[in-house]
Amino acid sequence: MIADKYRNPVIELYDVETFPRITSDGYYAVTITDARWVRPQTNRFNLWVRFEVVEGACKGASLQRRFYLTEKSVKSISYLCAAVGIKGKLQDPRDLVGKNLTVQVNIKKDQRRGVFIPEPIFFLTLSKMKGGDDEAD
To answer: Using alpha carbons only, what angle is made at residue 52 by residues 122 and 127, rounded to the nearest 5 degrees?
Structure first.
């Protein structure tokens, strides 16, 4: 008898290439399209966030970032929340969905697979990029 998990397998896709793709480092205006707590097989909870580029030649390209719950990542989560106007602790990742911001992207090589992937590394409010006076703290 075949186990139920083999009859209806769940297929998870990671780092799926979409076109247009981000192929160079830089700053990109994005909208957060999905955010959730994830507990993969390693049992290390993390915050998974998907961004979509909303302006420029790469409009429509997707980015994603996992924030493992380490001291460094908690700081990055707080910068992300500040950039989209969420004060205090992030209660529900779905509060991030639909928020607009600018991300600094660094193209890095995935050593395991030998491909280059864009990684969001720094978060700014949109008005900071457009010369506004808003504070991100």
So the answer is: 55
* Per-residue pLDDT band at 43 (split at 50, 70, 90): confident
3-state SS of the chain is: CCCHHHHCCCCCCCCCCCCCCCCCCEEEEEEEEEEEEECCCCCCCEEEEEEEECCCCCCCCEEEEEEECCHHHHHHHHHHHHHCCCCCCCCCHHHHCCCEEEEEEEEEEECCCCEEEEEEEEEECHHHHCCCCCCCC
pLDDT tens per residue across span 1-28: 444 444 444 444 445 444 567 878 888 8
The CA distances from residue 58 to 21, 34, 78, in Å, are 6, 19, 26
The predicted structure's pLDDT at residue 75: 86
Q: Which residue is it, tokens 């950039």?
A: 83
Amino acid present at 115: V
pLDDT score at 8: 46
**Strands 115-124 and 26-38, how do they pair?**
unpaired
